[in-house]
């Protein structure tokens, strides 16, 4: 099968690693070869967390500059920061809800203008799906399900060769039962939202 390269970027505590685990489980259950790696920033909440997931025949989990087929961003400025991994054919899915770093809170830095950030991404990639995943997670009944909203949006694009039903099965397998209903609802809300964007 063709190789597909996915980069996921988030701030610590947003659920990037759980999302990666769901994707890996769904790929294995679909019989799709998958390789994964993770890069952690600060060990505590607030640091940058990046996952690289490669589907198909690949010898490495490294995704070099301009190689990503898909970029999934849990936070807008982190999506922008990872744009060097993208090219003119890349599909980008990003959360619109910012989580400004402490440097913005202390006034020593400024957060990028969101409209300008989105315009910049659009000019350099094939497709941008931008949604308020945080609001949809709250609608699903759990603000911590931002990751599931974004997975729904990701798999709606068909950019990753895994059926959405396999993803739902993986969500059921790897998430706690107390969060299963809200996670599945969040996935569906993200899927539906992405279908009306772009």
Write the topology of this structure:
Layout lengths: L3 E8 L4 H14 L4 E7 L7 E8 L14 E4 L2 H6 L9 E5 L6 H4 L8 H11 L2 E5 L1 H8 L5 H11 L7 H11 L2 H19 L3
- DSSP helix count? 8
What's the number of structural domains?
Answer: 1
Q: Topology as H/E string?
A: EHEEEHEHHEHHHH
* Low confidence ranges: none
The biggest sheet amounts to:
6 strands, mixed
Please state the second-level CATH architecture. Answer: 3-Layer(aba) Sandwich
Mean pLDDT: 91
What is the CATH class name?
Answer: Alpha Beta
Rg, alpha carbons: 16 Å
Q: What is the CATH superfamily label?
A: Pyruvate-ferredoxin oxidoreductase, PFOR, domain III
Question: Which structural category fits the helices and strands?
Answer: alpha/beta
Proportion of β residues? 15-25%
Shape: globular
Q: Approximately how much helix is present in the residues?
A: 40-55%
What is the distance, rounded to the nearest whole angstrom, between the alpha carbons of the first and last residues? 27 Å
Query: According to CATH, what is the topology?
Result: Pyruvate-ferredoxin Oxidoreductase, domain 3
- Reading side by side through the largest sheet, how are the strands ordered? 2-3-1-4-5-6
Strand tally is 6
List keywords for this structure.
198 residues, alpha/beta, six-stranded mixed β-sheet, 8 helices, 6 strands, 42% helix
């Amino acid at each position: 099968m063709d190789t597909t390269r996915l980069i996921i970027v988030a701030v610590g505590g947003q659920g990037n690693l759980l999302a990666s685990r769901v994707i890996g489980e769904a790929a294995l259950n679909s019989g799709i070869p998958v390789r994964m790696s993770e890069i952690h920033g600060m060990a505590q909440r607030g640091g940058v967390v990046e996952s690289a997931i490669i589907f198909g025949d690949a010898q490495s989990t490294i995704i070099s500059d301009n190689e990503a087929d898909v970029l999934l961003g849990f936070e807008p400025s982190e999506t922008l920061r990872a744009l060097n991994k993208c090219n003119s054919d890349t599909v980008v899915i990003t959360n619109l809800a910012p989580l400004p770093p402490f440097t913005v809170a202390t006034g020593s830095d400024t957060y990028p203008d969101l409209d300008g950030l989105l315009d910049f991404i659009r000019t350099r990639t094939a497709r941008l799906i931008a949604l308020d995943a945080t609001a949809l997670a709250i609608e699903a009944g759990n603000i911590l399900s931002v990751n599931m909203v974004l997975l729904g949006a990701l798999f709606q694009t068909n950019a990753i060769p895994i059926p959405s039903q396999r993803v739902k099965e993986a969500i059921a397998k790897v998430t706690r039962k107390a969060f299963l209903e809200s996670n599945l609802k969040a996935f569906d809300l993200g899927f539906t939202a992405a279908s009306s964007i772009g």
